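## Example pair
The file below holds two records. Each record gives the amino-acid sequence first, followed by its structure token line.
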Amino acid sequence: MVIFYLLFALIVVDVYSAEALAAQPDVAVLADRLEDEWSEIFYHAPENQKVRRLRDLLRRAEALTASYPNRAEPLVVEGIVLCTLAGVDWGLSSLDNLNRSRLRLVQAIDIDPKAMDGAAYVTLGNLYWRLPGWPISYGDDNLARRYLQSALVLFPDALDTNYFMGDFLIDTEEYGAALEYLERAERAPIRPYQRVSDLKIKTQVAEALKVARAKGGSRSNFFSELVPDFKRP
């Protein structure tokens, strides 16, 4: 009888533990919601609202990071918001925000390189590509290439990994190599959970393909707004 009650107690504890775990929020879902909000702000918000809304979003991303310090997803979102805020509100705090962004993204990779479809690698690649080098900032084309290639190793058929590698190779005038990645990006499906961003990337892919096939030319690049692009005239 004692054994029966002990077994019953263990079953009850297991049931309550399972229910408690089920009731906990999914950190990846919470991070995805913040990234969705970032997309809406970045692509659609009026310019005079972006800074205020990004600062509010950053506070909530930081709170999520503090609540789940061992998860990569909140760190990825925080890094993306920080570098975007630096770009839309360029000033004395921008370099600090860019350095904090890099730190958060590197921390995310250390925890889970695949988090949010390798977004930490893609964002770091863009930062190293678009920023000036020392002594102004930490821009470095070799590191940019390495981070973008790392994203491709993890997600070789994804839209964003192929587009950004292709666009980077256009800047380095490697048009043949760029074309391979851009054509792969053209074939890549739009992710339902990243629909806003992916639709914008598709328009950029079309422009980049024209430049790669012509082996030169200018193109608009919406994503250079992530950070001021010192390398473009």
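Second record, same layout:
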Amino acid sequence: MANARTFTYDVALTFEEGRASRVTAGARPAIGVAPPEDFPYGDATAWSPEHLFLASLSSCTLLAFLAHAENAEIDVLSYTADVTGTISRRKSDGRYAFVAIELAPRVVVGAGQGDDAEQITPKAERDCFISAGTTADISVRWDISER
């Protein structure tokens, strides 16, 4: 891989109280993080590591799709997505982990560009760095329409 690039990102975490923390990354707004409500000290109003992971995977897929759409000169008029992740014990090692993720992007592209948009969806799935970093089974159900 003669043209391989390396990307490095830094995040700082500060414990607050109970099980809550705050994460920062440079000048970006801080994010409060706590366990989901299923766990002790859980907070249904705070972002949890689990929710942040799913948000990262969903937004990474969006960014990969947009990059490929731009290269293919596809007009993306709107893009929304829902994502659901299931955590249970993995069969391979008995550890709790995301084992299944269902991502459902809904994309509206310019008239006559639906087939072209469908053709770049495998590239968007492949090029999401976040999904490449998990062993979970990821199912993506694309809904592409034209306007």
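Notes on the second record: The chain has a mean pLDDT of 97. The chain has two domains: 1-47, 49-146.
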